[in-house]
Amino acid sequence: MNIAIVGATGAVGHELVRVLEQRRTPVTSLRLFASERSAGATLAFRHTPHKVEPLTIDVFDGAGFDFVFFSAGASVSREFAPVAMRSGAVVIDNSSAFRMDADVPLGVPEINPEAIRAHRGIIAVPNCTAIILCMAVHPLHRLGRIRRIVVSTYQAISGAGARALAELQEQTRQAAAGQSVTPKVLPHPVIHNVFSHNTAIGPDGYNGEETKVVQETRKILADEAILVSPTCVRVPVPRAHAESINLTFERPVTVAQAREALSRAAGVRLVDDRERNTFPMPVDASGGDDVLVGRIREDLSQPDGRGLNLFACGDQLRKGAALDAVQILEVLRD
Predict the structure, then answer these.
(1) For a tag on the chain, would you pick the N or C end, based on fewer CB atoms within 10 A?
(2) Are 37 and 183 within one domain?
(3) Is 241 a catalytic residue?
(4) Burial status of residue 199 (CB atoms within 10 A of its CB: 0-12, 13-18, 19 or more)
């Protein structure tokens, strides 16, 4: 396959190169694109250096790309993805540009492969928080339809990009040395702090990330009736998101039933050891492909047996972005 990555020098772009290599994707040729500012950099793929080219409107003409991954932001995707599609490529887009377009599938291969295969040239990768949430709740939604989700997220700094991740590393060094910390990329200090997700607050009081979680969860699960109440915050963790999830079902669902369903779910790893007080943690999810799910217990505030609490962690750059994108490609190759 002839593949291109737009936004190759960003955090997700780097991870896309790594995932393609690790999963031994049959790549015939790989071309990397970025802004003029980042063009000229070199990334290694299968021990071969690949020079990053500047993205221009004519790079897709006659290039013969089979798939083009976009991870350069919504404005770039809106401008260039239709051009890539018209050139004959299938576009797998990691931005928010097309996620809520009715004609564009919001792809999580373990959940909706049929929707992915029905694409019309563009497939959107969901928001990382929504992917991790849906991976945790989809097996349970099949077990007994979920009516309501209350989710509080503890989101890694990598979700804000490579510069924000570098800022966390710098502030960690500054704090260890007893120096003052001045935020430059994110609006508040990252180290020793937790703050509302760094997206704009809407007139309803919800930040942009929370709105995405509501809308995208319903679309991924193909159930517009699910009520979703999110609170999204940033925490000083490098790259794995954590989520505290409270569910209300249409009918009673037991802890044993939930554990059994999750233990059989593709892409999910059950981490639920009460005896050792060991449950999903970002340090264990970082760098891995599975979404870790555990801390499964009855919601005592719902005595009718229709409520469960659980905790999930997933690598924001892998299953939350790059891995999901490559898995979408794999669905289309099957």
Answers:
(1) C
(2) no
(3) yes
(4) middle
Q: Is 128 a catalytic residue?
A: yes
Domains: count for the chain: 2
SS3 for 51? strand
- Do 95 and 135 sit in the same domain of this protein? no
Token look-up 């801390």 returns 295
| Tens digits of residue pLDDT in 281-317 | 999 999 999 999 999 999 999 989 999 999 999 999 9
Instruction: Find out whether 226 and 218 touch, Cβ atoms under 8 Å.
Output: yes
Which tens digits make up the pLDDT trace of 243-281? Answer: 999 999 999 999 999 999 999 999 999 999 999 999 999
The answer for 192, left when phi > 0, alpha when psi is -120 to 50, beta otherwise, is left
Query: Between 208-220 and 128-143, two packed helices, what is the crossing angle to 10 degrees?
Result: 40
Could you give the C-alpha distances from 282 to 1, 239, 240, 303, 316, in angstroms and in order? 34, 8, 5, 31, 10
Query: DSSP labels for 264-287?
Result: TSTTEEE--BTTTTB---HHHHTT
Catalytic residue among 119, 128, 138, 141: 128
What confidence tens digit (pLDDT) does each residue in 205-232 have?
Answer: 999 999 999 999 999 999 999 999 999 9
Identify the domain containing residue 59 by its residue range.
2-125+321-333
Let me know: does 209 contact 128? Beta carbons within 8 Å: no
Q: How far apart are CA 10 and CA 7, in angstroms?
A: 6
Q: What is the pTM of this model?
A: 0.95
Q: What is the CATH number of the domain that holds 261?
A: 3.30.360.10
